[in-house]
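Project standup — Tuesday

K.O.: blocked on the structure for the chain from last sprint. Re-posting the sequence here as requested.
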Amino acid sequence: MTANKTRGRRAALLLAVITPLVAEFTLGNPPLRMAWLLLLWIPIYGAGVVLVRELVRRAGTGWTGVLLLGAAYGIVEEGLALQALSSPTIYGAAGWAPRMMGLNSAYTELQIPYHAVFSAAIPILLTDLIVPSLRDRPHLGRLGTWLAGTVFVLGALLLRVTVVTSIDPGYQAPPAILAGCATAVALLVAAGLRLKAPAGRPSITPPAPAAAGVFGAVAAFVYLAALFPFGGATQPAFTHGGWVVVPMAAAAALAVAAAWLLRRWTAGGLWTDRHSLALASGALVAHTAFGLISNTDTAADRAGLAAVGVVMVCLLAVLGRYSGRAAAAGRPSPRHGDRDLRERPRA
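H.V.: unblocked you, prediction finished:
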């Protein structure tokens, strides 16, 4: 029991470190020369996603729960801590597209799914592949889960009083916006802890792992490119005025189609760890490639992010070989569909 607790704590610490590296560092935010800024993000990112995983494993709601709670995490960070979802000045996001109900519409559409995937789902997946013996159970006990929640709240406050005061001084979201964000978080958490994939879902034979990797790369790159202005553009996809609704609608359609395909591919029992790792690897490579063209200002920053990308690819390759040897040795390799996480221990 003591050995299991120790492994669980180490796995939780690993997840806490991986999360900001995936969500921020591999996108070039911050650049390599300012990597120390990750220390400000580990409390909110690391503890927040550890909390997401602990709650979902206890509820048994699988990847549906991870994505819904990951979206809730995104609202906490972007809507309540940074308050970037509604700020008229931060990042210039208010000019990307028309504001709706006081929110920066294109920025909101970009960031909430981004956090669900890159801040929650992919780091949790990678940690489960690195520590496969613990993938189906909580890493921490109830006290550890409460501690993660406390650090998460303190991390959000830390972000508020450090980063925000330097990049968006003086802005305070209206009470109605804050109340709306809090309500959305509560609804997403409630859904994420209750909704389970129905039994007997229709399935589609998944593509080969390599094709799943290409799918992940294309979907991630197109989604980011459709919503984040780059290459000197002031609106997404180099649009002007009302034409911004075209890439916004395309990104929404892509997200729905990708989610539908993944639910079908993972429903039939043919989806394996190789598929999951290939899908995540493709998304991460595309993520870093997009960072190179959109999120670097100098040749040194581009060289630094390229080096980060090379190291990332090498580590993913090592993980792929490790997972392959484990499978060849006969270690149990649960599928990564929702139904495999349907029933989980609550202790």
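K.O.: great, moving the ticket to review. Residues 5 and 140 are 7 Å apart (CA to CA). Confidence is low (pLDDT under 50) at residues 331-347.
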